[in-house]
Structure to design on (388 residues):
């Protein structure tokens, strides 16, 4: 299980790492930003890897016990499968408590922090992606640089234009400048040297009947101007999105039935999390029967079937949550019914495997299908050989 968690997290985070590299390319302290964002993403992916790792660990662990006839030794010594499964059932209960902490409290905060970092990167550090001779737009400003030295953040010959709409426009040119940081300013600041400034005090002059707007012309030796705009979303309070609520906060928002987030969205997120946490409790009862096979014929089809069941169940839960959020469907039919069906199927399979000596009906069905295809291919080969 621990191996599966490590491999799963590595694969999931490596896929996101490529997108983070594109996002932070050329930014200041890009490597520290990447590791910070990966740390905020880890709880999200851990919520996916944890139940999957437990499930795979149960499949491979009990399958090895079955292959090596260790289960036969336990049964011969008077220990039933329900007794052997007690430790992993206790483990699933402990992991469900861990899942409550992850889904209920850590994920909402880490999601908010990740979004804040992404927003600050997109809204503040655009200058670090500037190229020589290419027009760049930051907020309402458009600028172009002739020569750029990234080593010391200096540049030569800049043209900057800001469109203020009905309030007018502003054009600034400078012979040189540099990007500096000011302690009490959240945005990077451009320090321009030896330049001119033209400010038009009004909207564009489009008709001779309209009075021409006034204008101001000035020269300067040194001037500091902030670059870009600090996005309000980076500093907004947590809870604009229902996925940023903790479980107690979701319950409190549902009881109030007020706010910008719809009641359907709150219902969908609250019950989806509860279902994901409770699903961990039934994983041992689903995995163990499929991991045990006949001694002489350990068929891999069992793993394929149970993985298909689990993937289909996960997709049903996600679509059910979407139906609640968009269409206002009943949480009982959209989420609880699929959960209860899977739980009933898992407990039934476990009971038959642990308490009954009757043959597994699944194996009988697979044997019939296997014999059918074997005869079909045998006839095909005989026909092909006869034609040759």
């Amino acid at each position: 299980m621990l191996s599966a968690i490590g491999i799963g997290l590595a694969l999931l985070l490596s896929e996101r790492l490529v997108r983070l590299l594109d996002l932070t390319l050329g930014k200041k302290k890009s490597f520290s930003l990447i590791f910070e964002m990966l740390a905020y993403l880890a709880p999200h992916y851990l919520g996916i890897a944890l139940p999957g790792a437990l499930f795979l660990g149960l499949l491979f662990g009990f399958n090895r016990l079955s292959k090596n006839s260790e289960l036969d030794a336990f049964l011969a010594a008077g220990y039933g499968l329900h007794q052997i499964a007690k430790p992993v059932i206790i483990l699933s209960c402990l992991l469900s408590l861990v899942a409550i902490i992850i889904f209920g409290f850590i994920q909402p905060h880490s999601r908010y922090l990740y979004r804040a970092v992404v927003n600050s990167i997109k809204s503040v550090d655009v200058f670090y992606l500037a190229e020589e001779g290419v027009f760049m737009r930051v907020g309402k400003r458009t600028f172009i640089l002739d020569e750029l030295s990234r080593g010391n953040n200096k540049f030569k010959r800049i043209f900057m234009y800001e469109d203020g709409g009905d309030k007018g426009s502003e054009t600034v040119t400078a012979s040189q400048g540099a990007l500096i940081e000011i302690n009490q300013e959240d945005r990077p600041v451009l320090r321009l040297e030896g330049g001119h400034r033209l400010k038009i005090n009004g909207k564009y002059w489009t008709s001779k009947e309209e009075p021409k707007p006034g204008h101001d012309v000035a020269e300067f030796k040194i001037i500091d101007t902030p670059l870009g705009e600090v996005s309000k979303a980076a500093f907004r309070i947590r809870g604009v999105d229902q996925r940023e609520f903790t479980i107690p906060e979701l319950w409190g928002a549902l009881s109030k039935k007020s706010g910008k987030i719809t009641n359907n969205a709150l219902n969908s997120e609250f019950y989806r999390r509860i279902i994901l946490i409770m699903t961990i409790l039934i994983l041992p009862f689903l995995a163990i029967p499929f991991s045990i096979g006949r001694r002489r014929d350990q068929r891999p089809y069992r793993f394929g079937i149970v993985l298909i069941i689990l993937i289909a169940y996960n997709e049903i839960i996600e679509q059910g949550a979407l139906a609640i959020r968009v269409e206002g469907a009943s949480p009982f039919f959209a989420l609880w019914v699929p959960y209860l069906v899977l739980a009933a199927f898992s407990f039934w399979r476990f009971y038959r495997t642990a308490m009954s000596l009757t043959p597994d009906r699944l194996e009988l069905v697979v044997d019939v299908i296997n014999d059918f295809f074997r005869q079909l291919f045998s006839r095909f080969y005989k026909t092909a050989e006869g034609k040759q």
About this structure: Confidence is low (pLDDT under 50) at residues 230-235.
